[in-house]
Amino acid sequence: MNRIAPLALSCLFTLTACHKGKDTDQADLSRAAPAPARTTAVAAAARPATQTTLDQVEREGAPVTVTGLALQRYVFQPSPQPQLVVSLSQGEWDWSKEGALHVDMQNAMAWAVTLTVDVDGAADGQHLHATVPVPAGAPATLVVPLHATSPRAMGMQAGPPMPYVQAGKRILLATMVEGSIDLAHVKAVRLGTPAPTAPQTLLFGKLDTSKGDHDLRDAYTGIVDAWGQYTRGQWPGKVDSDESLRGGKRKPGQTVVAAPLARKGFDRYGGRTDLPPFKASGWFRTENRDGHWHLVTPEGHAFFSLGVNVVDDDGGRTYIEGREFMFKDLPRDNGRWAPFYGVDNKPAGEQAASAGIGYHRGRWFDYYSANLFLADGRHWRQAWRARTLERLEDWGFNSLGNWSDEALTQTHHLAYTRSINISGVFGNVSSGYDYWGRMPDPFDPRFAQAADAAVAQASKDVHDDPWLLGYFADNELAWAGQGPAGRWGLAQGSLRGEARSPAKQAFIAVLKKKYGTPAKLAAAWSIALDSWDALDATNFAAPVPDEAHPAIADDYSAWLRAYADQYFRTVAQAIHKHDPHHLFLGGRFAVHTPEAVAACAQYCDVLSFNAYADVPGHAFDTAAVAKMDKPALITEFHFGSDDRGPFGKGVVPVWTEQQRGEAYARYIEAAAADPSIVGVHWFQYVDQPVTGRLLDGENAHIGLVAITDRPFVNFIDAVRKANRKTGY
How many Cβ atoms from other residues are within 10 Å of residue 663's Cβ? Predict the structure, then answer.
């Protein structure tokens, strides 16, 4: 360990909107004069620098000491950014050989307090920044790596919970550090709380630095046990032996699947027979009756699709290559365990979802499948399928969502969906938010060929199956960019493309037809445009719409509609060609524009939204959808917490497992009450791996079951009750 202050070093402590020292004797500096109050502490030359404390102020005649650590109390008063600044009276620190900053501290409140840590360099704008939730409780050592890092660099999207215990000490590691700095010239360390609304009391003690990155590695060492669970936590249902893993499971080899039986009041597809019937067509279809949309079963009964995504047995795959130190008791990669290992060396794709993800290739292990094997023996897959179908029906689900095991559909217990994944060699366009990649260019003739091939493949062997609900086209395409002007991202991206881009040429053709001459377009958009050829330039600077030039927004809007029309029309034609019976369920919107949704409503049978929010109406404009004369299917939603192992809380976080159930019930009730919504599909069946899934490192507790295949009992009880309450 290396101390910040050498012998006879003078340190300057600046406190802004922060009360320190005795409760009665010290001034409240947030009410002091405008200039920040300053105190100076000088380390005595005769005293060895074994400890540098922020302050040696005594309380009631004795040093403030908590379990052997000399800590000083600071009260961060309500203000925009109260903070404590630690700096040298003269000169700078040289931390060029140091790896992390250490601060002994304690949260004196009864609740968690958010602490910000900034390490400032001498050069303007250079600093490292970390935000750390500090729980109430015993003292801990705050550790801040002196370089940018994040859980993504460790192969996962959310890092392990803090603090953790290392060699008897509580360690509070900042797993996310942003910025950059020349460590040879460190000017100050700032500790603060962001805009507290009430006084927040924290205790601080000695400041140190340490060499290397061992602190960071220690935080991730041994965090996964033999069954894929987080090692440092405890929760109801956590497995601690192979025997407990087998508890409540079928005996090995017991794989009989019962024939589907219609429940009283329902047809065999799950449609309600207690309601006035519709015309039976032999296929799932939609109908609006008295202002309320319905899915209709092949037998002619109202059906509200309650589904689950990713009902599959391969959800436990996580990369282990290069980070073996994270995993305890990994089985050998041969013999009976060999089927649960694999290798993926695909190059990283052009998608923001994978940006910054480390350990993103090489050898992986599938904990979920391995646990199923441990529980059910060599016939584990058949046993899992039987058990899973029985569970879903018992829990009130009647549909299989996207990316589910196709073998499950062969039993015909549940309605199911198919995904049309359009891939191949064709043009693409950036909307500015390419989370899953750039937008396909539907004006490229090769796109129509690829769409036809994808539909032919997706509909193969199922186009005559009445249990098929319908088809989705792609998933979460980048119809919009980011920020206030994100709506126009695809239009601007079309014009930024190369001259050979079919989308760009199609947009230019539209502008030529409307304006006739470059001068008229230049005047309408208030840009310089000497000739039509100027639009062909790669990275053409497409203007941002503004109120002074409404033609820009009008032209962009028309283009966005034309773009979406071309995409959805092309896919719809392919579906009608290869399968005239089943529904086109839309494009699973995540980001979207009014133009894209309107085009989908014209060419699709159902609008589909991945609608992550507390209720559907906060994820998309349900009132606008109601005016489009098409039903809506919610194809993804979930609520996650971090009290059952995985570190992430998903897209819509809550604090506890109980709150997950409450949030689910609230969401389902709101969806069922909306006359345009015909179903909701939960994402996903199994919790994501602690150390992140292969695709992008997602590692959230969002499942119905754990990676050990154990249902989350209290949550499932709430799910079952909410599903049954819908009447389906």
Answer: 21
Q: What is the pLDDT of residues 350-394, one digit of tens each?
A: 688 888 899 999 999 999 999 999 999 999 999 999 999 999 999
Query: Residue 141 in contact with residue 170, Cβ under 8 Å?
Result: yes
Q: Which 3 state secondary structure label does DSSP give 314?
A: coil
Quick one: 150 and 70 in the same domain? yes
d(CA 199, CA 181): 31
Read off the pTM: 0.90
Give me 43's structure tokens.
């380390």
Q: What's the whole-number mean pLDDT along residues 38-62?
A: 31
Q: Is the pLDDT of residue 60 over 60?
A: no
Two tokens, residue 719: 């799910």
Rounded to whole angstroms, the Cα distance separating 4 from 581 reads: 73
Q: Which domain holds residue 499?
A: 486-554
Confidence at 55, pLDDT banded by 50, 70, 90: very low
Residue where a domain stops, chosen among 520, 554, 588: 554
Show the CA angle centred on residue 361, arms to residues 350 and 343, nearest 5°: 125
> Is there a contact between 442 and 422 (Cβ–Cβ < 8 Å)?
no
The answer to whether the CB of 313 falls within 8 A of the CB of 686 is: no
Please name the amino acid found at residue 686: V
Look at residue 261 and tell me whether its pLDDT is greater than 70: no
Secondary-structure breakdown of the chain: helix, strand, coil percentages, each rounded to the nearest 5: 25, 25, 50
User: What is the per-residue burial (b if ≥16 Cβ within 10 Å, else e) of 405-427?
Assistant: beebbeebbbbbbbbbebeeebb
**Whole-number Å distance between alpha carbons of 668 and 662:** 10
E strand or H helix that includes residue 568: helix 550-578
Q: CB-side exposure of 218: number of CA atoms within 13 Å?
A: 19
Q: Domain check: are 546 and 444 in the same one?
A: no
Amino acid identity for residue 420 in this structure = I
Of 554, 581, 602, which closes a domain?
A: 554
Instruction: Based on the fold, state whether residues 305 and 329 are members of the same structural domain.
Output: yes
pLDDT of residue 52: 33
> Do 76 and 122 fall into the same domain?
yes
**Is there a contact between 529 and 602 (Cβ–Cβ < 8 Å)?**
no
Tokens describing residue 654: 């809550």
Q: How many domains does the chain have?
A: 3
Look at residue 156 and tell me if it is in a domain: yes
DSSP secondary structure of 438-460: PEE-TTSHHHHHHHHHHHHHHHT
Token duo for residue 430: 């950036």
**Contact between residue 206 and residue 69 where contact means Cβ atoms under 8 Å apart:** yes
Residue 372: CATH number of its domain: 3.20.20.80
204 and 295 share one domain: no
Domain check: are 7 and 148 in the same one?
A: yes
Per-residue pLDDT of 75-114, as tens digits, reads: 999 999 999 999 888 889 999 999 999 999 999 999 999 9
Q: Is residue 580 part of a domain?
A: yes
Residues 92 and 190 in one domain: yes
Phi and psi torsions of 616, nearest 5°? -55, -40
What is the per-residue pLDDT for 262?
57
Rounded Cα gap, residues 104 and 17, in angstroms: 21
Q: What pLDDT score does 413 carry?
A: 82
Which residue's structure tokens are 């309601």? 275
